[in-house]
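Backbones bend. Shown next:

***
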Amino acid sequence: MKQGAALLFSIVLTALLSACTSGDRTLYSTASGGPVPPAYGAAIPAGNRVFDLNQCTMYPSYFVNNKVFYSPPFDFNHNGAPTGSSYSPPIMLPAQATDPDATPVMAAFTAAPSFLRKILCRMTGVLIDTSQTSNEPLQWAFWENADQTAGNVQGSGAGRWVALSEGLWNGTNTYSGYSLYKLNSLLSTTTGITFSSTPEGATLGLLGALAHEAGHVVYYDMCARTGQSCYSDMHSDTWYRVGKPARIRGMKDPYPDACDQDENSQTDCANNHVTRHYDKVVDDWNGGNTKGLLYGLYNGRKWLDVVSSAAPDEEFVELFELVVLTQANAPNNMGPLTAFSITLPKKRGDTSGATVPIVSNNYPSATLKAKYDFVSQTANAYANRP
């Protein structure tokens, strides 16, 4: 039975910012019976709170005042609970464009291409997660269950949220640093691995994190909810079977019923004797890099990166992230991303790393160009849907 779903990116930051103080703001929940939230930002006079999508996509301050919120920890397990359990959406405390946290997000929003601006403006909320515990995910996405047959429609069924830890909003994490954070959540060590991006800056790091979570929402709405409508364009050379979306899944967790082509035959998939190529790659690296499978994955160019091989949605989302960054605006040298590479040892015992380009001249490898174009088209279609 499908319930509300969440995608978690579990990374422990070495240092998080101190919790945000609420000042004179009122904490509210959109749950039925809770205090009524202000419809939009305080800058809009009462009685004139008519949300303007064009204003939101044009003006970063309008976006912050209307769509960005502070949020305490969200209980994924409770809010994706079985039929009959109460549902409470994320608690949201309105942010303001004058807040210190608003400066980096307005910079990232300024750099975002128009389709991502529109996607973010059409979210129920873009949350700054003020969680301070080490077991909280660094970032997450959540959508309400709208399946009438499941007997447990959550809220309106249309709620869509993306959230980033406050530690990501502090404007200090470069895109290379953010990429290394992702690998740190998958591998036992990243010693010997470095990333390099052009340009290199904190704005692209925050923009990449926002894009990653927004990409999960886009994939769910445009691909997962409609069966295999994206299969031939996105997964036909990587997955025999994409399976169904999980209710709650971390970035490195398997996608239910998915079956990749690198380690399985169609018979294996049919008999559910499934081995993930991702698991073999990670186990080889963690076991000493004896076979050099991690380098082989990046150099083979079938997968964009190791995150992509974890699950079908991650394959889409990692390319979505690059579509956003390579099409970013360029005020104050914020973007677009023109080059991005990883350097890592080919095999155990290598004294120096080999560099593999992930993006060159604004695009991933030629073998991934068709998928890149499909993700770009899908993103624009989602942003401009009725």
Observations:
- The chain has two domains: 5-173+209-222, 227-383.
- The two ends are 28 Å apart (CA to CA).
- Residues 5-173+209-222 form one domain.
